[in-house]
Amino acid sequence: MTVMKITWRSIIPSCSKGVVKPEGKPKKDVSKQGSFTRFAMLDFSYPSSMLSEDLSTSLAGSNLYVFTLGELRLITNSFSSANFLGQGGFGPVHKGFIDDKLRPGLKAQSVAVKLLDLEGLQGHREWLTEVIFLAQLRHPHLVKLIGYCCEEEHRLLVYEYMPRGSLENQLFRRYSVSLPWATRMKIALGAAKGLAYLHEAEKPVIYRDFKASNILLDSDYTAKLSDFGLAKDGPEGDDTHVSTRVMGTEGYAAPEYVMTGHLTVMSDVYSFGVVLLELLTGRRSLDKKRSPREQNLVEWARPILNDARKLGRIMDPRLEGQYSESTKGSCIGLSMP
Ligand SMILES: Nc1ncnc2c1ncn2[C@@H]1O[C@H](COP(=O)(O)OP(=O)(O)OP(=O)(O)O)[C@@H](O)[C@H]1O
Ligand SMILES: [Mg+2]
């Protein structure tokens, strides 16, 4: 597939209303990229000022809906606290409901509406990166972006609603039954499939923020990756890595990336190993409430993982032996940092 080099100006958001019309027939195979050539983020600069060209034109074929702020206010009951789902670095997330009264053809469904916090650390750059990547990538293990809103300085994203929230909430929630072993393995496998899809795409994508809070769970615990605000196009041609400003989350980011700024798909694989360790141990990658020796999960686990006689100590005691010894061994092997 040739990479369509398009200029920044051609992808700047417009605030037009309506659905982005597909150019051709939508593809049935969801595991393939969209029905148009995926374009790269790599060479773009990010002007903070609004320009008038049309993002929706560039995203033709993606089936994204463009919503107004008024519409999103309406469907979230004015972003009421009763609809509040959670808050991350981008801003608050609220539950809403959409159907074909809002737009003809729109499937009746619950959605999660993410609102950029205008005082926060993230901004237009992360919003646009998310829109561009998720508009072009579709897979059963990636959260589906339904649409977006860009009105004056406001930036919002509308996703399919994931009833079980994030893996972080499910795994580390204090007062709840612990996730069974089989569910943990289903989540690990689903997340791995999402990551493999990104890495094996014709034009690979490095996700860069693989962590428990970015793995969302459907009602049957199907895992879907969310948050593409830090995603990067992979190296091209003979290049082995992409050089970037170091970004990501402490406790999950690969040490070689943090030290050199050289980003590869292996940086995501490292973070996958950390999440797998979290699933096996029930411990957070970074937990300031623990004793200094145990705060960093990888540092605590490494000597234990290297000593076969001590391996049993690492497992989450709440699992109470729900796994076979051989499965435990394979998982520990995979999570080796
Ligand atoms: N599509 C969704 N369906 C249901 N809940 C969601 C959805 N997206 C986000 N949430 C909820 O909103 C919370 C905040 O999500 P968000 O991705 O903004 O932040 P985060 O992942 O916790 O932190 P970070 O900014 O570091 O990524 C999540 O913990 C999750 O519970
Ligand atoms: Mg997140």
UniProtKB/TrEMBL annotation:
GO MF: ATP binding; protein serine/threonine kinase activity
Keyword tRNA processing: no
Keywords: ATP-binding, Cell membrane, Kinase, Membrane, Nucleotide-binding, Transferase
Source species, domain of life: Eukaryota
Segments forming domain Protein kinase: 79-337
One Pfam family matching this protein: PK_Tyr_Ser-Thr
GO cellular component: plasma membrane
Catalytic activity from the UniProt record: L-threonyl-[protein] + ATP = O-phospho-L-threonyl-[protein] + ADP + H(+); L-seryl-[protein] + ATP = O-phospho-L-seryl-[protein] + ADP + H(+)
Subcellular location: Cell membrane
Coiled coil: none
Major site of localization recorded for this protein: membrane
Signal sequence interval, chain numbering: none
Keyword Calcium attached: no
E.C. number(s) listed in UniProt: 2.7.11.1
PROSITE patterns hit by this protein: PROTEIN_KINASE_DOM, PROTEIN_KINASE_ST
InterPro entries in the record: Kinase-like_dom_sf, Plant_Ser_Thr_Prot_Kinase, Prot_kinase_dom, Ser-Thr/Tyr_kinase_cat_dom, Ser/Thr_kinase_AS
Protein's name in the database: non-specific serine/threonine protein kinase
